[in-house]
Amino acid sequence: MIETNVDDRGVAEIVMNNPPVNALPVKGWFDLAAALQQAGADPAVRAVVLRAEGRGYNAGVDIKELQAAADHSALVGVNRGCAAAFAAVYDCPVPVIAAVHGFCLGGGIGLVGNADIIIASEDATFGLPEVDRGALGAATHLSRLVPQHRMRAMMYTSATATAAELHAFGSVLRVVPRDELRSAAFEVAHDIAGKDPAVIRAAKESLNGIDPWDPKRSYRFEQGFTFELNLTGVADKVRDEFGK
């Protein structure tokens, strides 16, 4: 589900591969967090490429796992798992380059929004269909990708944005044909890997330190409303209606 390889130039490649749509279960989110933490803790690693195999980059959480749970344990687990994975991207001591193809939805936005650099294929789309699932969250990270009013419109309507649009906003560095995505991400990663590693690690820590808000705290605030919607039964009602 989560695979890691490190090349001879110090670039760690972390790959999500959970067919059919890369929607991760509770364990998958924690495994991803662990892989990122392990890569960042390795002094030989100078940059990370976070990408995926399959039809799309990430479709968020595994809704079937939530629906199959007899209580709220899966909800608590996936919320904690998402928070851990998003934080692991943000806190990774070296730059994380997200290489995005196809759909990037829900939890995928949390990963990409916390990445340092985004390379996207021409077919990539980004969105938060949370309101159609009776949930909230990751507006924190979408706000790092699109302007505030666009973020609100996307949140309320579940609309998506294209890679070209995000490139125009400045949040996506490059848009490339899909068959060039991996090589384009590695080109940027190898450029970073060629710099002094101590300086790059210091740069990552300093840039996090000047962020205007703490995305980890902001996201956990959002999650409180998801818990509320589930505890009151609203989320189940919305998911049932959406599935009809």
Provide a concise account of the structure shown.
This protein has 244 residues and is α/β, with parallel strands linked by helices. It has helices at 26-41, 63-68, 73-91, 107-114, 139-142, 148-157, 163-169, 181-193, 197-209, 215-231, 234-242; strands at residues 2-6, 11-16, 47-52, 96-100, 103-105, 117-121, 125-127, 160-162, 174-176.
Polypeptide structure, described:
The radius of gyration is 17 Å and the shape is globular. It has 244 residues and is an alpha/beta fold. Helix 1 (26-41) packs parallel to helix 3, helix 3 runs parallel beside helix 4 and helix 3 (73-91) packs antiparallel against helix 10. The protein has a single domain, classed as 2-enoyl-CoA Hydratase, Chain A, domain 1 (Alpha-Beta Complex). Strands 1-2-3-4-6-9 form a six-stranded mixed β-sheet, sandwiched between helices. A three-stranded mixed β-sheet has the order 5-7-8. The longest helix has 19 residues, at 73-91. The model has no long low-confidence stretch (mean pLDDT 95). The chain has helices spanning 26-41, 63-68, 73-91, 107-114, 139-142, 148-157, 163-169, 181-193, 197-209, 215-231, 234-242; strands at 2-6, 11-16, 47-52, 96-100, 103-105, 117-121, 125-127, 160-162, 174-176.
